[in-house]
Amino acid sequence: MEITETTSLSKIVIKLDFLKPFESHNITEFTLIPRGDSTQVRGLCTVPIDTWQRSWVNFFHRRYDRKDFEAGLANLKSIAEK
Predict the structure, then answer these.
(1) Which residues on neighbouring strands pair with residue 28, listed in sequence order?
(2) What is the pTM of this model?
(3) In the chain, is it the N or the C terminus that has fewer CB atoms within a 10 Å radius of its CB?
């Protein structure tokens, strides 16, 4: 994982490379939108893959990434509020 771009406090672009369960090179963009006393986080992942791999990635992200993403946001929130 490598941060490739940041725009002030509103945008972070990450190059995300996987080797397993198959090789994949992705670009993930997070947009941070202030909403009163909180921040809305939107994520967009660009995955250059064929149809079979797309099915596997959808399954993998739904099963594993969501809970890791939510845990990461909770950790980020607790650090930011210190």
Answers:
(1) 14, 45
(2) 0.58
(3) C
Q: Kindly report the three-state secondary structure assignment for every residue of 28-50.
A: EEEEEEEECCEEEEEEEEECCCC
Lookup result for tokens 């909770």: 74
Give the CA count within 13 Å in the CB-facing half-sphere of 23: 0
Report d(CA 39, CA 16) in Å as an integer: 23
SS3 state of residue 2: strand
pLDDT tens-place string over residues 3-51: 999 988 789 999 988 887 777 788 889 898 989 988 888 888 776 766 6
